């Protein structure tokens, strides 16, 4: 028995040695981007901390703005400079616009969604529907009163807590705001805990997102994935199941209501998808699976990203009282103190817009964008990139690149006053929404929720901190704060403005 054990160990060591040598050899054929030497099986996973964007940024200081890493056995190219990002997302966008293959149709990263669909006819079809039916300027305008109503509800909720003299959980308030808006746009109502087996909807979403955050060993080392050592796949399946059961009820309720001919105040996105699913002339037949998966995508893409931007903006303003004061002075001078802000005021509020841009530069809510995937062999920066390689673009590192930004890690909204820098993917010094074919289609909605939410928080209240501010980040596919932001609000407008108007 002992002898057999020794033989097994020798064989294992020989296997590891040979695969290490083979991996080293394959790295040296052709001119591939430089990178750390990978270990067998784990590749370079041991170099990646619980905050991958930070580990990858440090590694890029050593290996350069385009480097190769092995996540388990999966070769991955990491991009960390504006010039290289432009090559991948603009010059050769058509070659890098796909996503790595992940999961089947019941998986929460199903290709039946939009964000993880490979580049091709299905993705084009679904993206067009989402833009036309939910995110076009005309559709966004039709939801303006909904945004006003939900921001006002947040202000009233904060006022209620302000009266009891306690610090308010700002993270929770802005999270409910963005979640409520996107739920109502998607399926006509806020999410009811009772329909989610007692779970808070946002928590289910957040848990799924944090499980999806990548760098789970099981995703990159097939054996570990198969035995599901950390129980991640089991948890994902449970949560996906909760979400799908919830969506089944929503779809049934919509079908029932359509049968009864009841009209809604807004035609929501599930209504639109259901009517398209009856249209025989559509190039792709929309099924219940598509409706569940695409709706999940929208909720996941919109909620934490927009909520996260709002909470980091508030955190930085609380750390920088002079910037907070400047933003409030701007609001007082353009809007005054005798009415609430409306969306039509936003274009005048240049400093407020600069605060939002500076927040997106320092805290891009998808710090590594979503993974891209090469569809052909090509070269970038003189290096060979083989077909079917995963590409990660480190938007977090790019926004803090000292060769692109003065005092790169400082929060200075003034840098955007009068600046031509575009945040929608034309200026590669900051790409919080990505760029090109796969760039975020929700920028218009995100900016109106974030700018209006922030303007109203600053106009309606003065804010102070109950204790020292902790600015640490937590692990996630977005960039969440490690601890919720708590702050003390003091109303600063006449009290009648916080009361609902008589119908
Ligand atoms: C501040 C808020 C937001 C930020 C920072 C953000 C950022 C991003 C980023 C970086 C990507 C990936 C780009 C790439 O892979 O190159 C993305 C994709 C996406 N975003 Fe956003 N997003 C935000 C809000 C929204 C909102 C409100 C929606 C609308 C519901 C939305 C819908 C999507 C969708 C559907 C995709 C997938 C696009 C595709 O794969 O074709 N996002 N977003």
TrEMBL record:
<keyword id="KW-0408">Iron</keyword>
<dbReference type="InterPro" id="IPR002401">
    <property type="entry name" value="Cyt_P450_E_grp-I"/>
</dbReference>
<keyword id="KW-0349">Heme</keyword>
<keyword id="KW-0472">Membrane</keyword>
<keyword id="KW-1133">Transmembrane helix</keyword>
<dbReference type="GO" id="GO:0016705">
    <property type="term" value="F:oxidoreductase activity, acting on paired donors, with incorporation or reduction of molecular oxygen"/>
</dbReference>
<keyword id="KW-0503">Monooxygenase</keyword>
<dbReference type="Pfam" id="PF00067">
    <property type="entry name" value="p450"/>
</dbReference>
<dbReference type="GO" id="GO:0016020">
    <property type="term" value="C:membrane"/>
</dbReference>
<comment type="similarity">
    <text>Belongs to the cytochrome P450 family.</text>
</comment>
<dbReference type="GO" id="GO:0004497">
    <property type="term" value="F:monooxygenase activity"/>
</dbReference>
<dbReference type="GO" id="GO:0020037">
    <property type="term" value="F:heme binding"/>
</dbReference>
<feature type="binding site" description="axial binding residue">
    <location>
        <position position="440"/>
    </location>
    <ligand>
        <name>heme</name>
    </ligand>
</feature>
<keyword id="KW-0812">Transmembrane</keyword>
<dbReference type="InterPro" id="IPR001128">
    <property type="entry name" value="Cyt_P450"/>
</dbReference>
<keyword id="KW-0876">Taxol biosynthesis</keyword>
<comment type="pathway">
    <text>Alkaloid biosynthesis; taxol biosynthesis.</text>
</comment>
<keyword id="KW-0479">Metal-binding</keyword>
<dbReference type="InterPro" id="IPR017972">
    <property type="entry name" value="Cyt_P450_CS"/>
</dbReference>
<dbReference type="GO" id="GO:0005506">
    <property type="term" value="F:iron ion binding"/>
</dbReference>
<protein>
    <submittedName>
        <fullName>CYP736E22</fullName>
    </submittedName>
</protein>
<feature type="transmembrane region" description="Helical">
    <location>
        <begin position="6"/>
        <end position="23"/>
    </location>
</feature>
<keyword id="KW-0560">Oxidoreductase</keyword>
<dbReference type="InterPro" id="IPR036396">
    <property type="entry name" value="Cyt_P450_sf"/>
</dbReference>
<dbReference type="GO" id="GO:0042617">
    <property type="term" value="P:paclitaxel biosynthetic process"/>
</dbReference>
């Amino acid at each position: 028995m002992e002898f057999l054990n020794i033989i097994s160990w020798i064989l294992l060591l020989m296997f590891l040695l040979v695969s290490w040598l083979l991996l080293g050899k394959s790295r040296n054929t052709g001119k591939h981007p430089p990178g750390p030497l990978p270990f067998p099986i784990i590749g370079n996973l041991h170099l990646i901390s619980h905050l991958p964007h930070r580990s990858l940024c440090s590694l890029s200081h050593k290996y350069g703005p385009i480097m190769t890493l092995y996540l388990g056995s999966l070769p991955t190219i990491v991009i960390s400079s504006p010039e290289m990002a432009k090559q991948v997302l603009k010059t050769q966008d058509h070659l890098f616009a796909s996503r790595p293959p992940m999961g089947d149709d019941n998986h929460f990263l199903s290709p039946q969604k939009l964000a993880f669909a490979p580049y091709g006819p299905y993705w084009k079809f679904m993206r067009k529907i989402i833009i036309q039916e939910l995110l076009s300027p005309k559709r966004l305008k039709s939801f303006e009163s909904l945004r006003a109503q939900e921001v006002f509800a947040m202000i009233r909720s904060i006022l209620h807590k302000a009266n009891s003299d306690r610090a308010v959980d700002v993270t929770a308030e802005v999270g409910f705001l963005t979640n409520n808006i996107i739920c109502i746009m998607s399926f006509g109502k806020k999410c009811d805990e009772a329909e989610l087996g007692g779970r808070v909807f946002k928590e289910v979403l957040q848990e799924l997102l944090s499980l999806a955050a990548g760098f789970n060993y099981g995703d990159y080392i097939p054996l570990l994935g198969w035995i599901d050592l950390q129980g991640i796949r089991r948890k994902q399946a449970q949560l996906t199941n909760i979400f799908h059961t919830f969506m089944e009820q929503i779809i049934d309720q919509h079908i029932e209501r359509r049968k009864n001919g009841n009209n809604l105040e807004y035609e929501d996105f599930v209504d639109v998808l259901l009517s398209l699913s009856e249209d025989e002339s559509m190039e792709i037949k929309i099924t219940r699976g598509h409706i569940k998966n695409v709706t999940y995508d929208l909720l996941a893409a919109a909620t934490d990203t927009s909520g996260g931007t709002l909470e980091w903006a508030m955190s930085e303003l609380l750390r920088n009282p002079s910037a907070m004061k400047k933003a409030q002075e701007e609001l007082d001078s353009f809007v005054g103190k005798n009415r609430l802000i409306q969306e039509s005021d936003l274009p005048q509020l240049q400093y407020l817009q600069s605060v939002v841009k500076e927040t997106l530069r320092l805290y891009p809510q998808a710090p590594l964008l979503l993974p891209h995937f090469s569809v052909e062999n090509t070269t970038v920066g003189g290096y060979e990139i083989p077909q079917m390689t995963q590409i990660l673009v480190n938007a977090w590192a790019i926004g803090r690149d000292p060769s692109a930004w003065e005092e790169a890690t400082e929060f200075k909204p003034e840098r955007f006053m009068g600046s031509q820098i575009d945040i929608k993917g034309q200026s590669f010094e900051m790409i919080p929404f990505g760029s090109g074919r796969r760039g975020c289609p929700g920028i218009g909605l995100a900016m109106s929720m974030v700018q209006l939410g922030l303007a109203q928080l600053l106009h309606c209240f003065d804010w102070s901190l109950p204790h020292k501010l902790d600015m640490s980040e937590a692990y996630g596919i977005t960039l969440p704060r490690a601890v919720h932001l708590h702050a003390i609000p003091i109303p600063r407008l006449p009290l009648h403005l916080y009361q609902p108007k008589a119908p």
